[in-house]
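FAQ
Q: What does a multi-component entry look like?
A: The components come first, one per line:
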Amino acid sequence: MRRVLGAAFLALLLWPAGALAADCPKTTLGDVEDEVMCPVCGVPLELATEAPQAQDERELIGRLAGRCKSKAEIKAVLVSEFGDRVLATPDDDGFDLAAWIVPALAILAAAGGVGLAASRWRRTRRRAPAGPAPPPEGARLDADIERYEL
Amino acid sequence: MRRLLAPVPIAALVGVVALVGLLAYGLSQNEPDRGIDRALARGERERAPTLSLPSLGGGPKRALADYRGKVVVLNVWASWCDPCRRESPLLERWHRRLSGSGGTVLGIDVNDFTAKAQAFVRQYGLSYPQLKDRDGDSIEQLGIVAYPETFVIDRRGRIAANRRGPVDDAFMRDSVLPLLREQS
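Then the predicted structure of the entire assembly, as tokens:
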């Protein structure tokens, strides 16, 4: 009985560490670096290979991921250091607004184009004169047999 | 001709023209603002931007306007910038020289890790006030494209000189000392 209790106690002690290890890391450098910018280089971090600041940023992300921080938590740390511009998403004001508006307009235009093409196609199909009805299956078979009779 | 005037080609043409216009606008927006340089070339002093930034390492915000009445040597730097390292001892020396005669050097650390910037300040024993611009907004207002850049602001808050690159004693002597003799 004492041995069972001891084992249970040990399992209880080890369980949180085990659970934490299973949860960690929550993210990786590769997972974060395509969603943040290298603020000095002006390109996404994954494309900035040489810049010392990009190396520092990678080091920080790796360290935070090692401390079991989630992607959102790591991004929050980067935003506190560099502001919103460190996020690899365009701003929602000024010229960057175009990055949101242009694709939306393009999708609308494409949908309009498809709709227009479909309605034209339907109209031309309706207007097309009905051709002669195909011969019944039996008559076609007879014709074929006749053709092969030498 | 009638085919060309149909709604679809016209809409496509309008779309292409709009995209080209947008591209041209975007390119013009990315150009650094050179208004300060043009004004200085004309011999005019443009009003300095209304910067208001937190101190490096936290603390309350400080505005450039807080230094009105003083000659301010505004130095934009980052800890990862090599020329900034080379000019820092010179700036510290000039700060000590200016602080007794109504002037100051004011640093703005941009696009930098706070811990690294603080280590830089400690390493070079910089005693002048340091602000942090995490977003780089001051860069845009001052038309900065590289580091370091320095702006000399007179007692009335106008930009009297600038150096896009590291400063030297000759620049400081020629552009700062005459301003100390001016009245606010």
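Q: Is there any commentary attached?
A: Sometimes. For this entry: Helices of chain A lie at 2-23, 29-33, 52-66, 71-82, 98-127, 137-148.
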